[in-house]
Amino acid sequence: MFGLTGDLGHKKLLPAIYDLAVDGRLDIPVIGVGRSEHSDADLRSMLDEALADYEPAGGDPIDAAVVSSIDLTYLRGDSTETDVYDALAERLDGCRDPLLYAALPPSIFGSVARGIAASSLPPTTRLVVEKPFGDSAESARDLYDEITAELPADQLFIVDHFLAKAAIENILTVRTVNPLLDAVLDADHVDAVDVVMSETGGVDGRGSFYEGVGAIKDVVQNHMLQLLAMATMEPPADDSDDALHHARSALLEQIAPVGLGDVVLGQYDGYRELGDVADDSTVETFVSLGLTIDDPRWKGVPITLRTGKQLATDLTEVVFHLKNVGPHSTRNGNRVRFTVKPSPSVSFDLDVIDPESHGHRPTTVFACGPVDHGSLGDYAVMFDNAMSGDDHHFAQIDGIIAAWRILEPLLTADLALDTYTPGSDGPT
Known about the structure:
The protein has about 425 residues and is α/β, with parallel strands linked by helices. It is built from 13 helices and 14 strands.
């Protein structure tokens, strides 16, 4: 695992290793690889520190016996140098199907693939790479071709951990297998769709990373567009992974490129004062943009994506605003809400009679949830899938290219950047 000692390792990767171990799914050694001087003991201390801040899904306390059973060691090496892959091969002597996970900049992925291919690692070695994959439609295609020139395509796994969240998978299921929702979630009945990913946290400690991506590349191109696809795509033709991937990519390919007049960008006050952030940074920490889907089910329905750091609430959800059907109905009174965060649920906001005023008021009349993968978090699910060669919860190149195409007008545009107060709802 390249990048195990970084911020992502503390927040996601090390807890995922524990999740796999406590669920009996980690019977192999884990090697953290990095350029810094660390020992095996240092890495185990990092595991302990990460788990001290981690609350397992089931609410059970951290099992010290499971932690001590994890075979976790460290190897110093540079991912761009070929000798690190030979050192890995030597340490993994006898391993049949190594899995290399790369939490690295996308510009390095090609070097990793070449290093694997040129080393004595087995030809069955799988490579898992983090997002963002490329920084445009063209670069994503070039990067994919560069990697698959060295490794078979079925040994490449491209991370979008939102696709491994059961609450997001559940959106597709609830929409498409329930006739009530299937009949009403279309252009004839839906007035608008909102996709929200609001975060109260900032980017403290991740300034250098965020300066290179911003909100568009960090979450809109991947998480938010994949969430929108799961909420609006047609049902897959069958139960196969290929059918799922095709249906999701087909939806993304029907979204028109964003119009520059339908975009608001923002940056929270105080962002430029963070370490590793330029004093005159123009990196966006807030994005709101409008989209349309050019297919019969959603034609003409306005769709808004909104995300930001340092906002008032932690909330990730898709909201379908139903059209008014009577003189007394209100927009907020008829909604179907698929919530991912803070608590996974499906809820219905309906207009009902207020018993005191006898007027109409919106009320949440039903909710189901939570929905999860039991003891496994999203990263643990992905690692478990990758170890078995299952690409169900991973992004596919066609969908990635389609997502970059949607956002292409933003990548070179010089748009105004509004500032906003931390803890607010973003730019007005």
